[in-house]
Amino acid sequence: MPGEFEIIEWIRSKVASCNAGFVQLGIGDDCSVINQPNDKRKWLITTDMLLDGRHFQLQSGLHSPEQVGRKAMGVNISDIAAMAGTPVAAFVSVALPKSNTKEIAQLLTEGIKAEAEKFDIVLAGGDTNVWDGPLVINITLIGLEPLGGAVLRSGAIPGDCIFVSGPLGGSYPSGRHMKPTPRIKLAQDLKSRLGDKLHAMIDISDGLAGDLRHILKESNGVGANLITNQIPIHPDIQFHVSENTAHMDQEVAIEHALCDGEDFELCFCVAPDSVTNLPNGLFHVGHITTEPGIRLVGSDGVAKPWTRGGFDHIGHD
Amino acid sequence: MPGEFEIIEWIRSKVASCNAGFVQLGIGDDCSVINQPNDKRKWLITTDMLLDGRHFQLQSGLHSPEQVGRKAMGVNISDIAAMAGTPVAAFVSVALPKSNTKEIAQLLTEGIKAEAEKFDIVLAGGDTNVWDGPLVINITLIGLEPLGGAVLRSGAIPGDCIFVSGPLGGSYPSGRHMKPTPRIKLAQDLKSRLGDKLHAMIDISDGLAGDLRHILKESNGVGANLITNQIPIHPDIQFHVSENTAHMDQEVAIEHALCDGEDFELCFCVAPDSVTNLPNGLFHVGHITTEPGIRLVGSDGVAKPWTRGGFDHIGHD
């Protein structure tokens, strides 16, 4: 087993100069030093821990360390997207398994780097450990809020139109959950087009039902009507179909779209008079209501309460 | 097993209001939002991951979750102390074991809170998970640099006097490593007394030899002479003495003081003309030299190279 110092040195050598942009001092001291922006924008900070056997399957051989690195960066970037922010610098803590330590460290770093470079994120600090347990990775990502302020979960009001940025469901069985595509550009575009009319936003990690519930709760306990046949269902839900059941009925498909989670699409609420300013390719799935709770509105116009989803899944802040 | 959402809600309910000071928005959205200071001071960011069986012993029953919480905060605060900064807000990720989940979560949170309150630190975000593995905790701590700028590792120059803030060694076998006392006040006092004459500083997590080596490396490859009988030896090194060897000779004691690690005292280098401005109670252990490497100078005045310590221990950035 190579020493931790050796692995840390290797990681450092692979990480581009940290004296870049906002990062005045990166890896190699007790803390990193971050410059202030000139334009009074605030810092956004998010943190996510990913665990082998839980958020990825390394020991079982299903996923590679490189995929794990990409996902760990991706889920954090997705949180910055949910505020319409710009990611800036990442702090990566890892607990590496004792076997194949160096190979895992190298591939993991490659995956982290590849995803970071897509979004011009600097690797600005971290903590590297080796232990008897399975791979654990925690990334803390800082970013800048957009001009005009971050889009919070708490701004939805009755009458708002609810949108999602892409089809939902089947992310886990298809393996799509390992390759999140954080909607940074879309979120920034929405904020710049809509300004204060973009009332609330979240990224869908717990499933649309669960994450919409976060918005409803934080927005003074408003509710939502979702229009069943407007919910975009991802073709990946086919991975839920067993050989014995060639066909999946609509109700089961909707359940997967609402509850599967790890889609990493955006769900957002906009003032109805600003819908015409939206870019193409978005899905208008329902409306915010005064009445609490979530209801599904079928093609018969009847609204039925939907209580599933969003409890005891994955705890993302 | 209680659901993660339930545990997250419980933690939230225990955490004081986050709309305090620099934290505009805390737990409960995709990211936390951090205000900028008015005085152009920069943010310091550090992150440390602690692992059961490695940095603490929870499964074996040696340590309580409350102790783990205190240590996890303490080691991060110590990193802010090493830059003479002021800790501000913490982001706590945990992987909780499946058994006794709620009890562990509660005690862990109590420990984190107790240590945070000592230093007016806000718990501003996090990520809570439950898994099959042992307890893992990662804390990312942000703080503000002192007026005049952070004290880095890289500023030591030949002729500087090297000091440590307390006696060293025996931290692990005595259990003292679970109760770090971050030297925030001392570090701030040093910075305010000495200003730019405080050339370099680090907190001692890898042992004096290992951490001093970090300073030497980052400071253009300078070296150090340590004066053997000036190195303060902690009485806790007695915990290394087995029943068969009632007596520990000086050489072994020095080795423990230099290499044991997890003392969380400060090691710092000051210009010789500013030594008279130092507060009482500090230990002058040696001098920075042009010649690279560390040497121990005995009472006979002979300098012998010291090559042990600081490799393959714990990787703190």
Report on the architecture of this protein.
- 2 copies of one chain form a homodimer.
- In chain A, strand 1 and strand 2 form a beta hairpin.
- The first copy, chain A, has 7 helices and 13 strands.
- Chain A has 2 domains: 4-144, PurM-like, N-terminal domain (60s Ribosomal Protein L30, Chain: A, 2-Layer Sandwich); 161-306, Phosphoribosyl-aminoimidazole Synthetase, Chain A, domain 2 (Alpha-Beta Complex), CATH 3.90.650.
- Chain A has a 7-stranded mixed beta sheet with strand order 8-10-7-11-9-12-13, with helices on both faces. In chain A, strands 3-6-4-5 form a 4-stranded mixed beta sheet. A two-stranded antiparallel sheet of chain A has the order 1-2.
- With 317 residues, chain A is an alpha+beta fold.
- Chain A has helices spanning 4-14, 65-81, 101-118, 171-174, 184-194, 208-218, 250-259, and strands at residues 23-25, 32-34, 43-51, 86-97, 122-131, 136-144, 161-164, 198-203, 223-227, 266-270, 283-289, 293-297, 303-306.
- Helices cover 26% and strands 26% of the residues of chain A.
- The radius of gyration of chain A is 21 Å and the shape is globular.
- The first copy, chain A, starts with a helix and ends in an 11-residue tail after the last strand.
- In chain A, helix 2 packs parallel to helix 3 and helix 2 (65-81) runs parallel beside helix 5 (184-194).
